[in-house]
Design brief:
This protein is α/β, with parallel strands linked by helices. The chain has helices at about 10-20, 30-35, 40-50, 65-75, 90-100, 115-120, 130-135, 140-155, 170-180, 185-190, 195-225, and strands at about 1-5, 25, 55-60, 80-85, 105-110, 125-130, 160-165, 180-185. Helix 1 (about 10-20) links the parallel strand 1 and strand 2 (about 25). Bound molecules: SN-glycerol-3-phosphate. The site of SN-glycerol-3-phosphate has 9 residues, from helix 7.
Amino acid sequence: MKFFVDTANLEEIREANDMGVLDGVTTNPSLVKAEGNVDFHERVLKICEVVQGDVSAEVTATDFDGMMEEAHTLAQIHDNVVVKIPLIKEGIKALRALDDEGIRTNCTLCFSPTQALVAAKAGADYISPFIGRIDDISSDGMTLIEEIVQIYDNYDFETEVLAASIRHPTHVKRAALAGADVATMPFETMVKLLDHPLTDRGLERFLEDWEEYQEAKEEEAATAAV
Ligand code: G3P
């Protein structure tokens, strides 16, 4: 499973990258807004310079021509840019046209298996089902991941399933069990994947025992020297 960090924050991206397990980055207009007064295109370039992997950057036009124009501009920023296209009718047309031009795409705002099926047929490189937002309305986001994985397997679609809107480590675990190709998550969640109280307690105990062992050895050496 590939790990992407879902943020436009350079510090978080650098920290995640330093862990050595980062495969890419996803951004969206809300995450860019959270960064305050930054130039969107400059930020995308900086992210690409930090991470060796795919970086999703989203169009904001909702008509075919507008999406194509933005997609061309974004794709020129860096080879690793993947253009994020919303899952609407005009978006499906844009996915097909961009695929024909060799521009890679991430189809976003997916909330149903049929949407995912159409996006794959249109040649999307990634499909982004939003797990957390489905959970938010008392439904089960993970069922959507399972169904999309099954459908794509049935027909050998090459579109990668990118589990998005991940809120906690259990989402990552279940997405991995369901066979999602990628999990994109907030940096905080990536760090939480490592948390376990027994690891902390175990390490504490090992270090205490090591210290006692060293002290005993020093005492023994001191006694022998007398
Ligand atoms: O980038 C898309 C997705 O990950 C958004 O997550 O938490 O805003 O639903 P969230």
